[in-house]
Write a structure and sequence with these properties.
There is one protein chain. Strands 10-11-17-16-15-18 form a 6-stranded antiparallel beta barrel. It has a 5-stranded parallel β-sheet with strand order 2-1-3-4-5. It has a 4-stranded parallel β-sheet with strand order 7-6-8-9. It folds into 2 domains: 150 residues, Rossmann fold (3-Layer(aba) Sandwich), CATH 3.40.50; 287 residues, L-fucose Isomerase, Chain A, domain 2. The chain contains 14 helices and 19 strands. Strand 1, helix 1 and strand 2 form a beta-alpha-beta unit. It is α/β, with parallel strands linked by helices.
Length: 446
């Protein structure tokens, strides 16, 4: 059940079999009432354009459901589109009886009339569902569309914080506030990394006691890290966490190397891992679109996501290994090791997260990509997360894909996709595809 406002428009004409149409109307309305507590629905079928206009007058909705309870010509959809700019689902009913006798509903022909009008009247895509109210696929399709619409609504109130700048040569993650607001509705906020470093160094041991206890409860081996690095890591975690809470931040893209190694002397990796565990989507290397991708995947799956580089392929297993220095959520660690802690593989200071990620049967690979011309695209692929140990120092995950891995990697490189991808713990491929439609962003399903 959701609070999304839905408008149900059961259209048709009274010259078909009204008992069959009434039964479908009653069942359809009952189904929709189970999906939202904010359903705008008529008391009777809208069997003329005047009735349709009268019902729609002065009403708006987040989602409009147009159902041909019987055949209706394209003038009905034309009228609807004059009164709403909301996303539209067209629900086509199955013919209830095929017995050589009368055509009772003719909903499918009505759907073609509606689709024809929609394509002329609107530039976006109409969503189409075919089936009877009692069919599981009908309910599942509605719920998938609703989840995607809710995701779009969340993006319009989302605050994404970029901390510092992308390193040289990592401009693929750099975002402009107007670009991201126009395409997604996201509010982009920025702050310099040095401000967090300066604030962290001011904190006393007493001020960070709560955060210290939290970190020690989640990060195995943290106490074995250099004591100064332990303290400064917890200080930094508190500063990040307090700022996020005070400014209602939903995702961050943080500068990491070289500044936190050279100036602060302690990496930010562990901080980002703990934030990811809190379901604050946290990307490193100031990758704003990586953070956005993580947030979308997290909200759709209700699980922390993982951002990693594709670093290795195995043609025999048809797998890709994704890796990063050590920012994964503690809850994604393999159960046999837990969220182990260590030092950075290159800089040799910590703490960083050091583990392989746990397995999952149904996963999704995702990336919000930005083309050279400034337009956006979605990379989407189904995957299975295998039960594999840590592959390299840092955090890693091995995913099996459906396509042949070698030609896929060559294609992605040639097509100019960014080197950071998000691994989502859940099958949200359909939701992401619909979200792309809602945002008018091209989706590339591999």
């Amino acid at each position: 059940m959701t609070s999304i406002k839905m408008m149900y428009l059961p259209i048709g004409v009274p010259t078909f079999h009204m008992p069959s149409a009434q039964a479908m109307f009653d069942q359809s309305k009952a189904l929709l009432k189970t999906m939202t507590d904010n359903l705008l629905a008529p008391d009777e079928m809208l069997l003329s354009i005047p009735l349709l206009e009268s019902f729609m007058k002065g009403k708006d909705a987040d989602l409009v459901i147009v159902q041909n309870v019987t055949f209706a010509n394209s003038a009905y959809m034309t009228t609807i589109l004059k009164h709403t700019h909301a996303p539209v689902v067209h629900w086509t009913l199955r013919e209830p009886v095929i017995d050589g006798g009368r055509l009772r509903l003719n909903s499918l022909t009505g759907a073609f009339s509606a689709g024809y009008a929609y394509r002329y009247m609107r530039d976006d895509d109409m969503f189409t569902i075919i089936g009877a109210p009692e069919e599981t696929r009908v309910k599942d399709s509605f719920q998938t569309i609703i989840r995607a619409i809710l995701m779009k609504m969340k993006l319009r109130t989302m605050n994404l914080l970029v901390i510092g700048h992308t390193p040289e040569g990592f401009g693929f993650g750099r975002a402009l506030d107007l670009d991201i607001a126009q395409a997604f509705g996201v509010n982009l906020k920025t702050i310099e990394a040095r401000e967090f470093m300066q604030e962290a160094l001011k904190l006393s041991d007493a001020a960070i006691q709560k955060e210290k206890e939290l970190a020690e409860s989640k990060m195995i081996g943290l106490k074995e890290i250099d004591s100064t690095n332990q303290r400064d890591f917890v200080r930094l975690f508190k500063v990040y966490q307090d700022y996020i809470d005070q400014h209602q931040i939903h995702a961050i893209a943080s500068r990491c190397w070289p500044d936190f190694f050279t100036d602060y002397k302690t990496p930010v990796c562990g901080v980002l891992g703990l934030l990811n565990d809190r379901k604050i989507a946290a990307a490193c290397e100031a990758d704003a679109y990586g953070a956005l991708s993580m947030y979308i995947g997290q909200e759709l799956s209700q699980e922390p996501t993982y951002l990693g580089d594709p670093v290795s392929i195995n043609e025999e297993e048809n797998t890709i290994t994704f890796w990063h220095c050590g920012t994964a959520a503690c809850s994604l660690a393999r159960l046999d090791t837990g969220a182990m802690t260590g030092v950075h593989p290159n800089r040799k200071i910590g703490p960083t997260m050091e583990f392989g990620l746990k397995a999952h049967t149904h996963a999704t690979l995702f990336r919000v990509g930005r083309r050279p011309d400034g337009t956006f695209r979605f990379f989407i692929s189904s995957a299975e997360i295998l039960d594999k140990p840590q592959q390299f120092l840092g955090t890693s995950v091995v995913v099996k894909i459906e396509q042949e891995v070698h030609p896929l990697m060559e294609e992605l490189i040639q097509d100019g996709w960014e080197p950071h991808f998000v691994v989502i713990y859940g099958d949200v491929k359909k939701e992401l595809t619909i979200l792309g439609q809602l945002l008018n962003i091209d989706t590339y399903i591999y």
